[in-house]
Design a protein that fits this description.
The chain has about 400 residues and is α/β, with parallel strands linked by helices. The protein has 15 helices and 13 strands. Strands 2-9-8-7-6-3-4-5 form an eight-stranded mixed β-sheet, sandwiched between helices. About 50% of the residues are buried.
């Protein structure tokens, strides 16, 4: 077996299952889960119909292999959306590729970019993949299985959970081959400003690493101005070739279709070309019927506006309730609340489940301890993905729970 598999840590939800497995929840209360970031709003009917129509109208049905690069109509839909959303002009033939959700793409892209040769030429140090802390655990797993060493950059709560890039030693930057960023962030909901992008581009130019920008939460936001994207930041700074930059996005959150596994990557044409080569062998072409449904989804904004309104209403009702008893505030974007609690985050999650039958995710499960500190300790992540009434009820139970503990 691949010995690198032994380096992988249990996934956060596996750890959550282990934490709660021996706990009997309050049987008098129906279970409510704020644990997993899985959209629960209904999938728009027109997307479902587009998939059905494609299945019934395609002459060969599902009898042919789809191209790894996807249909040009799909890539053109990506390009049109980027033009509408960010006022960017990308070439569908060379700067865009379909992917089966951003999770799959993040993992595969890391395998494409990282050159593990450094790790095999002892005593040369292993290549580095830099990522935020707290973080989406795929970042760590993808780095480890590529033969790289993950380096975690802490967030600063005093600066809207911005990453402390200045804390990274130059010796680490010099070994870095890939920087993974998430904006809007999971779990903090923070959006990177243009000044932060400018700093990262300068570091990329100096050290030659690739930046992969995970932007799957970009369409759920609470400010008047939509979140700045990585490609958009590059264009604003005159980097119109998008050198050493790849943006990844998905329909899962935007259009409530996590089961479709559909998204795309965009950016540096030279990286896209190598990524296509990798994917040709990886065997991850998107189904023609999913492509057809994806085209329909990317070409419609009304359902996205309505979806965003649902989240805004939900957060407007839930956040003030929780703010009475927890240190929590409305994030820039995304569908998580990242709250600070008194005492152990794991004890909080276990006891809340036992007494009030509400599931949340301990923040320490989303972070790594570095230099004696875990930025997720004494924090919890709440995914407000269910219908508003259910989320409000969960918040009311959490308020009662906290009041009984103090």
């Amino acid at each position: 077996m691949n010995p690198l598999l032994s380096l992988l840590q249990p996934y956060p939800f596996e750890r959550l299952h282990q934490l709660l497995n021996s706990v009997t929840p309050n049987p008098n209360l129906r279970p409510i889960s704020l644990g997993m970031g899985e959209p629960k709003h209904p999938t728009p009917a027109f997307i479902q119909q587009a998939m059905i129509d494609a299945l019934l109208s395609t002459p060969s049905g599902l009898a042919t292999y789809p191209a790894t690069a996807g249909d040009i109509k799909l890539r053109t839909a990506f390009a049109d959306w980027l033009k509408h959303r960010y006022d960017l002009a990308l070439d569908p033939a060379s700067q865009l590729l379909p992917v089966n959700g951003s999770r799959e793409a993040l993992f595969a892209l890391t395998q494409t970019i990282v050159n593990p040769g450094l790790a095999k030429r002892a005593p040369e140090p292993a290549p580095v993949v830099v990522c935020p802390n707290p973080f989406y655990q795929i970042y760590e797993g993808a780095a480890l299985l590529a033969g790289a060493e993950p380096y975690f950059v802490p967030t600063d709560p005093a600066r809207n959970f911005a990453q402390d890039w200045d804390s990274v030693p130059q010796a680490v930057w010099s070994r870095t081959q890939l920087l993974l960023v998430c904006s809007p962030g999971n779990p903090t909901g923070a959006v990177m400003p243009l000044s932060e992008w400018e700093k990262l581009f300068a570091l990329s130019d100096r050290h030659g690493f690739v930046i992969a920008s995970d932007e799957c939460y970009s369409e759920i936001y609470f400010r008047d101005e939509p979140p700045l994207g990585g490609l958009e930041a590059a264009a604003k700074l005159g980097r119109n070739d998008f050198r050493n930059l790849i943006s990844l996005t998905s329909l899962s959150k935007r259009s409530n279709v996590p089961g479709m596994r559909s998204g795309f990557v965009a950016g540096d044409a030279s990286i896209i070309r190598q990524f296509l080569l990798y994917r040709t062998y990886h065997g991850c072409a998107m189904s023609p019927v999913v492509q057809a449904a994806s085209i329909a989804a990317w070409r419609d904004e009304q359902h996205v506006i309505e979806n965003r309104a649902l989240y805004r209403s939900k957060f407007a009702q839930v956040t003030p309730l929780l703010a009475e008893v927890l240190e929590v505030a409305l994030p820039d974007a995304g569908f998580y609340l990242w709250a600070k609690v008194n005492g152990s985050d794991t004890d909080f999650a276990r006891d809340l489940f036992a007494l009030y039958n509400v599931t949340i995710l301990p923040g320490s499960y989303l972070s790594r301890t570095r230099q004696g500190a875990n930025p997720g300790e004494q924090r919890i992540r709440m995914a407000l993905v269910a219908e508003t009434a259910e989320c409000v009820e969960a918040a009311q139970r959490i308020v009662q729970f906290v009041k009984t503990r103090t």
